[in-house]
Specification:
The complex is a heterodimer. By secondary structure, chain A is of the alpha+beta class. Chain A contains 13 helices and 13 strands. Chain A has helices at 28-42, 64-70, 86-99, 119-122, 145-159, 163-177, 191-196, 224-227, 260-271, 289-298, 307-313, 335-338, 345-356, and strands at residues 10-17, 52-55, 104-111, 199-202, 204-205, 215-223, 235-243, 281-284, 315-316, 321-324, 328-329, 369-374, 381-388. Chain A has an 8-stranded mixed sheet with strand order 2-3-6-1-7-13-12-8, sandwiched between helices. Chain A has a 3-stranded antiparallel sheet with strand order 9-10-11. In chain A, strand 12 and strand 13 (381-388) form a beta hairpin. In chain A, helix 6 crosses helix 10 and helix 6 crosses helix 11 (307-313). Chain B has 2 helices and 8 strands. Chain B folds into 2 domains: 4-69, no CATH class; 73-153. In chain B, helix 1 (10-16) crosses helix 2 (27-34). The chains are: A alpha+beta, B mainly beta. The A-B interface holds A 135-142, 146, 149-151, 153-154, 157, 198-204, 246, 248-249, 251-252, 254-255 and B 50-52, 54, 58, 77-86, 88, 91, 97-98, 100, 102, 110-116, 127-128, 145. Strand 4 (199-202) of chain A pairs antiparallel with strand 4 (73-82) of chain B, so a sheet runs across the interface.
């Protein structure tokens, strides 16, 4: 058991979300402030209670001091520069609460369709300042998003899988998305739909990649002790970690058995009293389908190369989705492939709602433990075990 | 003994690759391109290769890393086919998917270089294919690519 003095000492006490859409024209500040105020009110708190503000580094996201000013927060003691994706922000907030840098921290994550990844966004003149972004560079590159396609090709080569293995992840997500009112895409698809979808970066098609979307999630984090006096049932942060393995660039990754997910799996398991046999809800990242297969294997649900078979073995034909052991859903909110590219915040929000019993017709009866594993292989792998307080 | 790249000035390499991020840690790599030589960093202390160029050896922390020419021989390790992608001179996605490969170089396990493959029918391009380095011209400057290895360049 690894040292983990923060275990269960900090809780998520409020969540807020705008929901996610490919339509409309709102700024990251508009989205972030809506989610933030909703999260603070959800916790039964007011502006006076928030003394820490932490943001993810999404394009256009207002920095913490600016968002604090928009919300009229007058006594903020912890507001670091924007961090990477959601778990980096959440871990920063958790550490700030535990150390006493702040007592109650707001975490927010606005995401936006950008002109280079969304046709509709490219036609919005108010987004012209986001012009090129990730579309730069030369074709002969395996960096950033392309890297997942590259290692997906290697995965198929090494394990002899088929594209249907990837397709199972998307079909599961889209089936689950039908029950999530916050989701960008609410229609289900079949495997035939997946196989017919337009190829983008072979072996990945349109439906292997997350959906650019607009929206924001926000969370309020405080001490577990204080959480007991607040409006909603607390959700305790039992263990949290991020992980990266030595990798100068994505094409230099040692292999599919040594990357960030392995660092996270080892670290998280060592910090946590709860593991796979305790999990009621499983929320693995699916920004690219290969990432989900990786999490399924690298967390130990099955062996390397076996994720496709595992998903088939635990497939619920009635609902056309994964139910591990007949009861544990995988991304019941639809993940990034259906809810949209929340870059991780949607998984955390769904975990909180499930553990509070707030997940409506997605609710896993009696859920007390959630495993959230966000991020991919290279620089942003993240893991979180949450439990009902 | 002076190498070919020492004849290329900083100003010239910056001018010939105007859209590439070039700094003091990778300028020899790109100067090598102008002489049609692929120079990857090798540690003079422990012999470990690394790429992309870093200011020290990740294996032993020696800062004596020397841009060193590689054979250019290797095998395709990662392979994708872009049905759409960033524009580049000579790249036309309407003519068919554009291949991008990461080649595991013969010099060291895990040492890879990413580019495209030329002179190869699409149906013959696969992970595991032996390839050799060659050069094309892009926007008036040399650009390293691979082609299927023929007998004379095949791996030992």
């Amino acid at each position: 058991m690894a040292r983990n003095p923060i275990k269960d000492q900090v809780a998520i006490v409020g969540v807020g979300s705008t929901g996610f859409t490919r339509h409309g024209g709102r700024t990251p500040a508009s989205l972030a402030t809506e989610a933030a105020t909703a999260a603070i009110l959800d916790a039964g708190l007011t502006a006076r209670d928030i003394d820490g503000v932490v943001s993810t580094g999404e394009p256009g996201a207002p920095p913490p001091q600016q968002l604090a000013a928009m919300l009229g927060l007058t006594d903020v003691t912890h507001y670091p520069r924007s961090t990477s994706v959601v778990m980096f922000a959440l871990i920063d907030a958790m550490n700030a609460v535990f150390s006493g840098s702040a007592d109650t921290v707001l975490v927010y994550n606005p995401v936006l369709r950008l002109p280079w990844n969304s046709r509709s966004a490219s036609q919005d003149p108010f987004r012209r300042h986001f012009s090129t972004g990730g579309a730069g560079g030369i074709p002969e590159s395996m960096s950033m998003a392309v890297a997942y396609t590259a290692w997906a090709s290697r995965y198929l080569y090494e394990y002899g899988g088929t594209r249907e293995d990837f397709g199972l992840v998307t079909v599961n997500a889209r089936s689950n998305g039908t029950r999530n009112p916050l989701a960008t895409l609410r229609g289900p698809i079949t495997m035939d739909d997946y196989l017919r979808a337009r190829m983008i970066r072979e072996p990945f098609c349109m439906l292997d990649m997350d959906i650019p979307t607009d929206g924001a999630d926000a969370f309020v984090v405080t001490t577990t002790e204080r959480a007991r006096d607040l409006a909603r049932p607390p959700v305790l942060i039992h263990a949290a970690t991020t992980g990266t393995a030595a990798c100068l660039a994505e094409d230099q990754l040692a292999d599919l058995a040594h990357h960030g997910q392995h660092v996270v799996a080892k670290s998280l398991q060592a910090k946590s009293d709860l593991w796979l046999s305790d999990v009621d809800v499983f929320l693995p990242y699916d920004g690219f389908t290969i990432i989900t297969l990786g999490w399924v294997e690298n967390l130990g649900w099955c062996g390397p190369g076996e994720a496709g078979g595992f998903l088939r073995q635990h497939w619920d034909e009635a609902t056309n989705r994964v139910l591990i052991n007949g009861c544990i859903p995988m991304n019941p909110h639809g993940g990034a492939l259906a809810e949209g590219a929340t870059r991780g915040s949607g998984y955390v929000r769904e975990a909180v709602q499930q553990l509070r019993g707030d997940a409506a017709d997605r609710q896993v009866a009696g859920a007390t433990t959630a495993l959230v594993t966000s991020g991919g292989f290279f620089f942003n792998s993240q893991g979180l075990v949450l439990r009902a307080g | 003994m002076p190498t070919e790249t020492e004849e290329v000035s900083d100003a010239e390499v910056l001018a010939r690759y105007p859209t590439t991020t070039i700094d003091q840690d990778n300028k020899e790599f790109y100067k090598g391109w102008l002489g049609r030589r692929l120079l990857l960093n090798r540690c003079a202390a422990c012999g470990h290769w690394h790429h992309p160029p870093a200011p020290l050896c990740p294996q032993c922390w020696s800062r004596d890393v020397v841009p060193t020419e590689v054979s250019g021989r290797g095998t395709v390790h990662l392979l994708i086919r872009l049905h759409q992608g960033p524009p580049a001179p000579g790249v036309d996605y309407t003519k068919g998917p554009y291949p991008v490969v990461s080649v595991e170089l013969a010099e060291q396990s895990g040492l890879r270089f990413t580019s495209t493959v030329v002179n190869c029918p699409p149906e013959e391009l696969r992970i595991g294919l032996p390839v050799a380095l060659t050069w094309i011209d892009r926007a008036g400057a040399p650009f390293p690519v691979f082609e299927p290895a023929h007998d004379k360049t095949a791996q030992e």
